[in-house]
Fold these 3 entries.
Entry 1:
Amino acid sequence: MVGPEIERLIQLLARLPGLGPRSARRAALLLMKRRDGLLVPLSEAMALAAEAVRTCSVCGNLDTRDPCTVCADPSRDRSTICVVEDAGDLWALERSRAFTGLYHVLGGTLSALQGIGPDDLTIAALVDRARNPEVREVILALNATVDGQTTAHVVTDRLAQADVAISRLAHGVPVGGELDYLDDGTLTAALKARRPL
Amino acid sequence: MVGPEIERLIQLLARLPGLGPRSARRAALLLMKRRDGLLVPLSEAMALAAEAVRTCSVCGNLDTRDPCTVCADPSRDRSTICVVEDAGDLWALERSRAFTGLYHVLGGTLSALQGIGPDDLTIAALVDRARNPEVREVILALNATVDGQTTAHVVTDRLAQADVAISRLAHGVPVGGELDYLDDGTLTAALKARRPL
């Protein structure tokens, strides 16, 4: 129905999160219709990104510079390191604008099933960073899943070698959430961690 | 938060149908994580498509060749031309595999509001094609909107110059549709056009 170049473009677009085979076809069509306004600029932006993207040697963030924009920002608070699973979590926290310290991207969670051990993550590098006397607190912002919490335990153990306070994100009712729709674990955690008014 | 190259990539991705600012960010992240597996191939596929894409000089379809894959296919029935608004509609009909003739892409619909008159569409080219004695039927597959139906009337008028049968798509209950959820216009059309069993 269409040339092989377009078929390949559709197949690759369909691998983006949020696009299925059908919406990839729609996207390809729009790109072809708006060749000069969208297809060419997007193709160039991707080529540029592919060339420039690198993993930050300090925190493991993905960016076009090394050290990354966050690590290189002189206004960030260098006494606090927030540990996240991957760069997506870092981006989510940055969007909230609630954290002004530095990050450390572990690169995943420990997983017996997937054969991911402590040496596959950047835990050793984190301990090195935490030993810097400038660092006073490490916040574990790992997913509240079994693997995430296992990883948090191991990271806590390793950080005993460094003289830092260790904290984790609070568990509780999501802002805007309705109690009726919450699972028992979350409700239990929210009750236990109740705060005086 | 991220370098300007990535910000630009996110902004451009967000203009694809089906992707908003948030999912564009997720898509950009996945692209950066899978640089060699996805970002580079997709960037190359886009560059290739941008270079190769052209409008078919016969039917107005978007493809990498001219005449397009449909027009160039010797197995298509050259006696029937299906008139559609844009290439997306052509693709939708092709997906159904229900039509084996040729197409004609009008490039939009007449619209007094948007100042689109008959000369902005490829109606004249359609009449030329319809005059070919090989062509016996023109099927109007325009959207069942006010603009689509106005356009259908004008196209029908112009096609009086050519010796062809003119038909339009049937209106009725969509297959899999429930009567309870249908609008009055559709139900009226389905009743009027009822078929003997």
Entry 2:
Amino acid sequence: MRVGIIGATGYGGAELLRLLNQHPHVEDIVLYSSSKEGMNIQESYPHVSEIYNQTLKKIHIDSVKSEVDTVFLATPPGVSAEWSAAIADAGCQVIDLSGDLRLEDPATYEKWYKRKSAPVSLIKNAVYGLPEWNRELIKKAKIISNPGCYPTATLLGLAPLVQKGLIDEDSIIVDAKSGTSGAGRSPSAITHYSEMNENFKIYQINTHKHVPEIEQILHRWNKDISTITFQPHLVPMVRGIMATIYVKAIKQTNEKELRELYQTAYQNECFVRIRPEGQFPATKEVYGSNYCDIGITYDERTGRITVVSVIDNVVKGASGQAIQNFNIMNGFEEGTGLNIVPMYP
Amino acid sequence: MRVGIIGATGYGGAELLRLLNQHPHVEDIVLYSSSKEGMNIQESYPHVSEIYNQTLKKIHIDSVKSEVDTVFLATPPGVSAEWSAAIADAGCQVIDLSGDLRLEDPATYEKWYKRKSAPVSLIKNAVYGLPEWNRELIKKAKIISNPGCYPTATLLGLAPLVQKGLIDEDSIIVDAKSGTSGAGRSPSAITHYSEMNENFKIYQINTHKHVPEIEQILHRWNKDISTITFQPHLVPMVRGIMATIYVKAIKQTNEKELRELYQTAYQNECFVRIRPEGQFPATKEVYGSNYCDIGITYDERTGRITVVSVIDNVVKGASGQAIQNFNIMNGFEEGTGLNIVPMYP
Amino acid sequence: MRVGIIGATGYGGAELLRLLNQHPHVEDIVLYSSSKEGMNIQESYPHVSEIYNQTLKKIHIDSVKSEVDTVFLATPPGVSAEWSAAIADAGCQVIDLSGDLRLEDPATYEKWYKRKSAPVSLIKNAVYGLPEWNRELIKKAKIISNPGCYPTATLLGLAPLVQKGLIDEDSIIVDAKSGTSGAGRSPSAITHYSEMNENFKIYQINTHKHVPEIEQILHRWNKDISTITFQPHLVPMVRGIMATIYVKAIKQTNEKELRELYQTAYQNECFVRIRPEGQFPATKEVYGSNYCDIGITYDERTGRITVVSVIDNVVKGASGQAIQNFNIMNGFEEGTGLNIVPMYP
Amino acid sequence: MRVGIIGATGYGGAELLRLLNQHPHVEDIVLYSSSKEGMNIQESYPHVSEIYNQTLKKIHIDSVKSEVDTVFLATPPGVSAEWSAAIADAGCQVIDLSGDLRLEDPATYEKWYKRKSAPVSLIKNAVYGLPEWNRELIKKAKIISNPGCYPTATLLGLAPLVQKGLIDEDSIIVDAKSGTSGAGRSPSAITHYSEMNENFKIYQINTHKHVPEIEQILHRWNKDISTITFQPHLVPMVRGIMATIYVKAIKQTNEKELRELYQTAYQNECFVRIRPEGQFPATKEVYGSNYCDIGITYDERTGRITVVSVIDNVVKGASGQAIQNFNIMNGFEEGTGLNIVPMYP
């Protein structure tokens, strides 16, 4: 396969370069840019010296068509809305890591993203790329809308409970914590080292763009769920997301029963690991890998279930999951190029 | 005043040394230890070189009685249970930073702390040292039980809502995040640098010792509250606690109304700062100071109120609050020695 | 005293706000800005809420003259060159934390700073504010040129050896490491959290602006010294500088002899602490304080002396030292407002 | 190949597990322990859940002989001295990551390591595993003594200059900085998170065990070199080493000439990357990979050459280099299983 990357100078792009380098079915990688054409990727990323020597090329649909089979878009808002339809029409697979195509209702998109939605016709053709719960549609997709980092951790953590209807549908609270890489590569006051180190921040209170994405999928799984409380925070670290999820059980349960529910739900999944009794995951335990690790327990005193779900936001929360989708779309074994032991410590 | 410190080689003790050094009414500081007598404090803490030159002395009630007026106990579990009664009987004020005297019910203590409670007679005489809500009793106290770090941030964040009965009493969820200094100075696998940096951890799920402490006070304020969900996490930073508090409003409200409630409740408090509209505090904004900064908002979609409360766990969550209590007990202006601008960045 | 600060929104300015707040002889603080007039300081720094409520004022010499006695300039290059002469002529003391007035030779300034030097007439009137070695001139100064952060740590570490002529004058190598706050508050790719955390960087190889500043002073102390090797690095932490200094002894010596030399040299200094045998300082041991801690040893195998000098770059390396100079200029006890125990941990 | 690991619960062992998992010629991995037999590796390392399920086995030479072809020892001092001879005699290849077999002179070992040396007969048979400069001997070796982390970065940085005799042999100063993983997995006061974060430390001044190892190899390359100054520091990060190397050129040179020297020296090396003009490496640019990145320059003012050499201490400084040696010993392509793009950010 020959693959193209638009947005290789961002963190999602860098991670695609890291992961695709060891993918046995990828023989050629072409880098495109809508703004930095002519630059060698090593100028932006010295860490790929002597590995990648490509120059960023301008996006021309005709060249794209002749040069690659699949295009990954690791781009800021608006780029996918502009290019995905044309790329797909040219016959290439599209895997979009941005949020452009995730929300099916343009009004919802415009409310939360504060910008114009992509055309409905394009959105309709995009399949939500959460393999564990949407694999059949992904197999036949031409355009993948890759899930957001927070939705990936949250939805994998909530799916078994929500799909089985075991919880009060009005009780979902997700307290999420992320490393700074999720904020991207553009320097800002918020992620300036001197202001972020030895600091813990809350941000975008009740307004994060991933809220409607999570609600849309939960609602698909369980019509009684309409709104959730989802609150992100910034941790002084680079990679990793933990979603601590609190829900009310509709009837008494216990840790053993819950663990069995999760183990059954994910027994055939190669990238979801359920922790044994009394163990809960830390973010470093999935560092650099495509795993989502989940711990679960029940508190008899309060009747609440706590689910702890961790991912590496740059891998399972972005580029790793994109490659997982790439594998499924092309009939490769799902873990191809992704069988990476987490880096520890 | 002449003050004694038991446990000066721990972090609570080090912080007392830092803060008491600039207290205008403290003229002499004597260091006691139950295990390290004979050691000079500089051996343990080179940062106090040429400032403190004391040797740790063995605890003898007769010496304590003649040497100091007030004793701060910044000690592991059990030390206060053993010594506080005798020290108070000797006529010294006792300010206990440990958890020994906080829970009024011995059975509750023994369930959560997994060890024997202090005698009820001692606990009965100890006043809970949360100045903002217990000032009158503190003024007359001989023994102060200084609040835990998490309870301080949580209770200051919840008090106005709970006392006014504005929330569903069964809906309280506190997702708390702490720097590692709260875990103390003893090296452990959990706080080993290589395992804690670039990592975010959840711990003591549904079992943290501060749960019954928080519940006890909330229940005093509002008899309908019996249990809460409180969940701590470890952040890769040294100092700081953020409590993100989620509660259900019993009727529709708005941010302005809530802010006014908090501003009124804390208008005479020198160490509680309510953030203006749209602003929420980060932990670094109280770094090294005795402030508790609070932000609050309401989400119309879910009917939930979010309160964000931050403190420096070693100051307002321990030694600073202890000195605040010391000031109140002795009729000093409450902020004496504590009027410190947070260190930023 | 009434003091003015130009540049309060930078880190040097924030630190002046922290330290001056507890200075007993400072009764009024006025904030000036050449670019952000009209902004309340709390908008820039929420951590000073309810402590400082000033609005930044435009710099007018007439207002400055009537409003304040001393002006601290914590400003980017060029501001002091523009304003210091006028402020001094208006009768105010000037304490300049920038590098504008440090180099006596304009050609040297222009070579290393790559910009036009301040007028020689202005530079001539500025006294280099390193109190430990320039106290008599500081007492009579109207304009202080406050030393750079690296020069402070380096010069205090080298002074006894250089002044006594105990080392090969061609052998000085200073390997310096700094926290990121030294790079200031403007976001940049270099200090973007995701690029700086879990990373250690070298920068400005053989070209750092502090090289000629260090050489100028060393040369004053010992005419045989002309050039040194000075190399800075960035550490993933916010505050702190360590200068590891390697020099060749001209004759055999030993640790005891060297320690005595340093203890004698600094015996009357309140902010320089020499470590006892076998102990060397870490940056955290001076965190938030005005101390410079020094350790020293000799290696018989190589004939080299190693000096380790640490400071908090924002305090002794900038704002704390500025206040130390302020105290000397005004006849206050030198440590006034600066007797701070380092914050640990 | 079937490989055994002794010491899998340490960081070197964990990294072998990560890297060997993707090695195409390793079909079986057996874990041995001299102290934790019977424990499942997942108890120690949850991050390998569902990847490794081995139980640590007691070391019996007969079992080792029948179970594996190669044994990696990632062990504390003394274990290799005890077991390596027997394992080699049993016909297995030995790759020792500890320092037991690195120093050829037992007296030197005993002076620096403060413990008894391994038998000379064993040390004589061990080949120093620095592939770039010892490849021919490694090909024929039965026992590899894998270099220390600091020596790897230092020797690769110095080799071209030293071998060509271009520097004053008495002028070598290596200022080295390491992440905390080099200190191993046992909790200690030095690497306790609260004491190490926001801190920069110097340690083992003039006494680090890697000094004689570096000197031994430099002396082999250039008989005029006998002693160097090598000084390590601890950086608040987990992985990465930077060696900043200062040497005096014996005659004037320039950056271009030096770069060509290095490019020529390493032109056939797959794991050494020489940076282009004006660029110097940061540790993160080799994070998780087997690269050693080198930058070099010359200062006309001082006549000194500065070499900056960075590695990931756990990979090229330990387990990655061990696998590189494993590949060479067995005739595999040298980069097999190690062609990893550094993880960034």
Entry 3:
Amino acid sequence: MKQSKWIWKPGDFELYHSMLLHNRRTYQGIYYPPMWRVDAPARNVMLYKRAEIEQRETLTVYSNAKQASFLVDNTRYPAGTTVTLEPGKHFIKLFGYKPDGFPAFYCVGDTFASDESWKFGSYGARDAHAGANDMYTEPGDNPEIFKFSYERIAPVSAEETNGGTLYDFGKETFGKLIFENLAPGTSATVICGESREEALCPEEAIVYVDLCEENGGFVSTTVAFRYIFVPALGCDYSLCADYEYLPLENKGSFRSDDPMINKIWEVADYTLHLNAREGFFDGLKRDRWVWGGDAYQSYFVNYYLMNDKDIVRRTQRILRGANPMTMHINTISDYTFYWIAAMWEYYFHTGDKQFIWASYPNMLTTMNFVTSRLDEDGLYAKRRGDWVFVDWSTFFDKDSGPMCAEQMLLCRAYDCMAKCAALLDDEKTAEKFTELKDDLYEKINRLYWDEEKSAFIDDYATGNRNVTRHANIFALLYGLTSEERKQRIIDCVIKNPEIPAITTPYFEFFELDAMCSIGEFQYMTDMLHSYWGGMLNHGATTIWEEYFPEKSRVENYAMYGKAFGKSLCHAWGASPIYLLGKYALGVRPTAPAYEAYEVRPNLMCFGELEGTVPAADGTVWVRMTRDAVTVRADLAGGTLVLGDKSYPIEKDVELTVSLSS
Amino acid sequence: MKQSKWIWKPGDFELYHSMLLHNRRTYQGIYYPPMWRVDAPARNVMLYKRAEIEQRETLTVYSNAKQASFLVDNTRYPAGTTVTLEPGKHFIKLFGYKPDGFPAFYCVGDTFASDESWKFGSYGARDAHAGANDMYTEPGDNPEIFKFSYERIAPVSAEETNGGTLYDFGKETFGKLIFENLAPGTSATVICGESREEALCPEEAIVYVDLCEENGGFVSTTVAFRYIFVPALGCDYSLCADYEYLPLENKGSFRSDDPMINKIWEVADYTLHLNAREGFFDGLKRDRWVWGGDAYQSYFVNYYLMNDKDIVRRTQRILRGANPMTMHINTISDYTFYWIAAMWEYYFHTGDKQFIWASYPNMLTTMNFVTSRLDEDGLYAKRRGDWVFVDWSTFFDKDSGPMCAEQMLLCRAYDCMAKCAALLDDEKTAEKFTELKDDLYEKINRLYWDEEKSAFIDDYATGNRNVTRHANIFALLYGLTSEERKQRIIDCVIKNPEIPAITTPYFEFFELDAMCSIGEFQYMTDMLHSYWGGMLNHGATTIWEEYFPEKSRVENYAMYGKAFGKSLCHAWGASPIYLLGKYALGVRPTAPAYEAYEVRPNLMCFGELEGTVPAADGTVWVRMTRDAVTVRADLAGGTLVLGDKSYPIEKDVELTVSLSS
């Protein structure tokens, strides 16, 4: 018998888990859904497969749906039946209806073992290959239950205070609270805190758990916490938790002689792992949602840490949702542009062409949505319901018209769309988007370039001719202007202290990437020490959503007008892993799918450093001291670059270059 | 406080109950879903309302969803909360998530009492008025439970036979079987039969009930039956049933001095009531689905029997399903055309403009779907996945190209679409579809008319120039040719015994309507006696799906290659109610919404007749003997027509005209 997989309507697995996760947020116990459309999987599904067999074989069909049957040629059987197929042509159709989840099927057989070779019957739309996921290959699996791992954890301390007990689990974590030995009828509101202060402030804490005894115990839904405050329950109960996580293996590593940077790397690592779930989350405590901008940055960290392909695929599917597309991803125009860019970047880092192929129809409809809403000049201008984010958009006016930064992201999206189309041999589409890209490039450089300021201005409609770093950083990162202008941007914007500094860790990702790309490593390592190091000095066990060095620890917990509104475990803070891998270890692909790559290590502020970077299906190990660089890689195509010298890296052959000469 | 209604995403109530009913069919216990896409309601919904209030008032929000909350301006509350609103502007948003049903809300208040004035938040698509239904106005209501009525019924006889007991409930019925006093662990397969023969033939019976004792009893899902066979259970159980029905009041009636016709009218009445459920079903035993052609005929019977508007609205919504439209309704092109026609005919008979307005976007997308798939000549030709039904299409070839009957139905759809557009003051669309109609009328009369045969031929592609009654009946019914050609059709097709007779009760509806419209009443009453009367002579308690007078009773039970495949309670057999109301009582609207109507009674084969016809919101009573006609109506606009004489009917004034002179 061939290995079978559970199969379903393509996309339903991601839509279902997206639906669950986007409906889990609460604020002080109140249901708090997203401000965008949450799509659901189908409740009725039909899958089919036609094949000719030469030998008699059997077929058994299982379904997770109570109401399920299958047709073998024209005879109908209930799910669970085994049928013998005689040699010849057969047409098998699976039918299932599941009102409270999504229908899935598991077929045991040879030719008709269930896998992606089955088709989804769309009833007149577009039949496609069935969905499947390598996590679900056993008949006892249930794709409605996401395959998390669990580990029992206990508080490291308990303290009697405020008329109850404050438990400290030692570090930020995520999971289900487990109460045992509760007296019958016990009920209470338990307060979760990412900080001690939050757990002890029920009026301002964000996450409540409504404890309600059942059979002497209680298990909560998943929550983020380090501290748990339990009011006196009048019984001798015990509290522990089941840490819920995805056991993703690290393929990247980094170690230096700077303990603070090492610690930052470890905390960033833990932060990303906590947020690596059904998809990449923004943060654990509050939204717990999948946001396109946060996810976009997580992808880059992922390529330098775990290099897990499936989580990128799942996240991209979750973000896109179902058709028809009527709003930008998370309502944010930038996030739609990142979503397209992320497709090409995914292929560039992993070489997984299959996913691009499967996603291509949704890429086309996404770009149709985008281009159908441009203004008469072919520029993106905010429309009703759109959120122009960039970096909280604080520098944006209501009447500012088309913003420079948005056109730059759109230009990047055109470029990536054209590349994906070319990859799939859709030359006509590739040409179309290359033309759109070239045209927009020209407009950006004509409409937004300020010759006097040697900078891109935020907008041209207001006449303010205001300059911020954002658009200029994008111009450097995505190559959206001439080399001459790039140099002027570096001199007059990037290195100009009069242009307001970036203050969010979200945009630090882009800024530090740009700074490193122009060799400003000192700026990056200084920022790691002061900004990331500043959080650690406040006792952070995960990276925060935002940080103000000039504010006190507790003042820093406030955000969105709430004393504990800030998420203290936010994925977008994990960027040091990406930056150190790409610029300190210096490993980066120079051709799609790591078919060519370079290793351009840089000691920066370090006396020595060492680490690995996942590279498509291989790994590159780098060690650098003041005296020598050593590289070892299990994939071909590498070049070690040191100053103006290049050394080919042979597969599986350790290369050492002395720096002492 | 204002009367509130439960509100939901528009269409979700119908989608939900459609989903349930279309997933209820079984064949010998095996799940048997439709061959078209079954759409589901949304699981996440947002509804909102903005209003300014002058006085302080309170608002309480309830939801059927466990996960529900609402925003008052920018403050979030859990469902169940009462909030006091101060004078001024307020923006209320309701959020709900219900994974296993559909979210609905009930708001108690004055300005913000929930009703259709609330809006559905589409997140960028098309915001629309909230859905509601007058059945659900109490806080304790649950729109997920369809409001059927129940009546306990008992078998009229029981007979020991075939190793068990055969129960006879006296007539065809529909409901839940109720077993009491079962021994623990009892389980058995119970056989339902519309006929005694079916109940006693487990190998060939269509509907099984898997009895499984629980707490000493068992209640089945709803099934159609007259006979129930229970194998010996070895305990002294009892069996009865809960008859499940919709308590729709008859507003139409008919009585004559012909007992057989009276009986046919009563059996047709019962048949339609049994099939009048969430929507109009095709039949009770087998499909239990909503089919466009069956429903189309039920509408006409309804206008002459119960004149219930909501069941037409529900049925039309169920048929249309959700967007995007990717297949014809029930996969059948004719049914899509009927669906459009039914909109105008609904307005014509009821005057309910609001429903046309609410359905208009779906009418437009339906016509977009239709016109985008026409051939290069603007004709409808079968495409892959389409089913061209007409009348089982037995006279259609695979290569017959565009069929005449289909163009005629499409032309009728264009005409009705244009009329609805004009009703809603969408002049541009009205003009467009009038042009399409005129153009298609010309093509039909040019491409399909055979001058020599004085008839419309089935198709022109094959060169067969075959003539059947179907297209020619449509030409008469929908006025699709000149008066001169109509007369030639009557002479050379309709009255020509060499043209094969119609053999299905489905198409008898159209034929008898056409025959009556040209005054061939004898043909109609003869057919009632022989065809409908023939079924009654076989002991039918409801009208069958099909009937062959030359076959025996038991032979007649067979269909679709199965011994008991035929449905013995099929809605499309109820047409005598429509035909007798329209042509014997002679009541029919001559302007939309019964603003003008005529009463043109005809004694036909009867010595006397009497009855009522619902007319928009009123009723017209007619009595006719050989000596006189008496008419009484509670609505204005009527004209009594007798031969070439006309008499205005005054509202609420009885008018008697003597025929003896």
